[in-house]
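Section 5: illustrative case.
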């Protein structure tokens, strides 16, 4: 998954299930051409991605070697984590909010985008070696990562509990999952949340959480429908997308992985001091200003994850909680 090995902290800002139900059950999403699909989302090979004209002053900020090459080498997570990064109906074309974001950034900087779908950890290997210019793959800003990378933010980082449709219980804190069977992807920030909450429940004398791990999401959803698990904790964009497209599940609680008074953020990530960080930051802010950014989020049902401005290397998740 695109969220593998992301640090998580012990304090979280939770929103009510009522608010999130409203955000997940709004009007049908439209593709970039403005047409409404019965599937709610355009998953064809013809994406009609949003872009913006090249801005000469921003293109001039791009390091000379990248400008001479003419392409922005983007590291993306491979796999099927809709609506973040997944494959179109042809099972070859990379689509989703992350490829769309990279495409728009490249257009402002006067570059053609070239996607490199790899496992999540290989994105960082590619950034370190210079094989990739930037990682646009649901990468959370952390204090540890900021030591090696420049990070230009473009979306909030939130997680969600997804349950079978018709579920009446809600998650607003650790006590709500005491004694419940919860699935979570291994090696992720979501796993750390659940294990921290379990420790808190045990300390408080509550029933422990029965934590379950599955090899793929199809197995998770089969287990959810059959009642083998009570809920699935994973990235909020994935939860909302699946609930909208399947009609079989619902989101029953969300949380933001961050310290108290700190919102977790997702960022376009590039090697530290390579000269590209400011260009990425300025390009994202230009897309926000011109409204292109919000259109990209809207086509994938993620407007609630929007940020008002892109920050370069803002405070991130704590080192001690990595």
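Designed sequence:
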């Amino acid at each position: 998954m695109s969220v593998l090995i992301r640090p998580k902290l012990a304090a979280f800002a939770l929103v009510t299930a009522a608010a999130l139900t409203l955000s997940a059950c709004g009007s049908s999403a439209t593709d970039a051409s403005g047409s409404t699909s019965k599937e709610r989302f355009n998953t064809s090979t013809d994406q009609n991605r949003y872009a913006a004209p090249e801005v000469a002053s921003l293109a001039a900020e791009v390091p000379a070697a990248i400008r001479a090459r003419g392409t922005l080498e983007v590291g993306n997570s491979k796999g099927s984590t809709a609506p973040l990064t997944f494959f179109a109906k042809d099972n070859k074309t990379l689509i989703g909010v992350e490829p769309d974001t990279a495409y728009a950034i490249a257009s402002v900087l006067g570059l053609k985008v070239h996607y490199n779908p790899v496992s999540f950890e290989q994105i960082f290997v590619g950034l370190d070696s210079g094989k990739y210019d930037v990682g646009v793959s649901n990468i959370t800003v952390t204090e540890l990562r900021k030591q090696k990378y420049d990070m230009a933010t473009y979306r909030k980082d939130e997680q969600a509990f997804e349950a079978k449709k018709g579920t009446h219980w809600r998650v607003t804190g650790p006590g709500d999952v005491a004694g419940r069977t919860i699935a979570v992807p291994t090696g992720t920030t979501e796993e750390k949340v659940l294990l921290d909450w379990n420790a808190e429940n045990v300390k408080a004398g509550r029933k422990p959480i029965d934590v379950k791990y599955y090899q793929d999401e199809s197995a998770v959803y089969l287990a959810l429908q059959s009642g083998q698990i009570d809920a699935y904790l994973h990235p909020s964009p994935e939860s909302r997308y699946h609930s909208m497209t399947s009609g079989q599940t619902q989101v029953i609680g969300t949380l933001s992985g961050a310290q108290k008074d700190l919102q977790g953020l997702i960022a376009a990530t590039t090697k530290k001091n390579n000269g590209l960080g400011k260009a990425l930051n300025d390009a994202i802010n230009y897309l926000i200003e011109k409204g292109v950014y919000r259109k990209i989020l809207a086509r994938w049902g993620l407007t609630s994850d929007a940020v008002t401005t892109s920050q370069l290397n803002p405070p991130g998740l704590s080192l001690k909680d990595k």
